[in-house]
Model the fold of this input.
Amino acid sequence: MPVAVCWLVSRVQRRLRRIAAAVCCASVTAFAVAAAPLPTVASINLCTDQLVLALADPAQILTVSWLAADPEESSFAATAAGFPLNYGSAEELLAFDPDVVLAGTYTSPFTRALLLRLGYRVVELAPETSVADIERNLRIVAAAIDQTERGEHAVTALHERLQTIDAQRPPHSPAAVVVRPGGFTVGAESLANELMLHAGVRNVVAEQGLDHWGSLSMEALLRSSPELIVLSGYRKTQPSLANAVLEHPALRQLGATRRTTTVPAALWACGSPRSLESAELLQRAAQR
Done:
């Protein structure tokens, strides 16, 4: 109980200091009105990390998740490395005392519930399974951190970039298969599949009825007879059973007679404006 009281007193003191600072700014001159400070934000989910790093002022960002600084997982890793990292615990976030906490719908239910009980504003984002979902989440994050105008600029740029990709689809749509570590692939109703279609590439696994993210046997891969094999390069320098699957002799023999390209896993891990880079990479491979 004393610990809770100390935390509450500390939080009240921080809030009072912020109010005092705002009052001081407002009284600098009788002819100027100080703008309300932008809300501070903490992100505890890899996908919300990507959006807050794309939209927020650096001064707003108090912390992002530890995965945000991993280049194998995050397309904003270099930017994220400049901020404190968290592991999604409520204790960590209490020390930062953010105005807004960004989380995914499946992120640490205990942390989200505790923060809500303590009076924090927690904004939860559903995963992005389409470009429309990216647009939706951009607007949600932008509104939560008072960057609505910046969010609309990002949505407009997203549309323009997608239109350029659509206009450059190759005349022939090659049959493609995504092969990820462990033999996993991408099926229908996934962001990766939609981006493949925009690029002008046929996802033969989706055409065969696989939903979302699923596994692909070597026999099924060989039967699909793809013209283009798409790899992710995920932790390819780190020995693992998952990456050993990619060294299967049948796959290596198939790769020797087919076009092969690599789309970094970070571009498909979460939906962000940078996800469109995957469509551009696929389109260049299809046009070769």
Summary: The CA atoms of residues 10 and 95 lie 10 Å apart. The chain has a mean pLDDT of 86. The two ends are 67 Å apart (CA to CA). The longest strand covers residues 61-65.
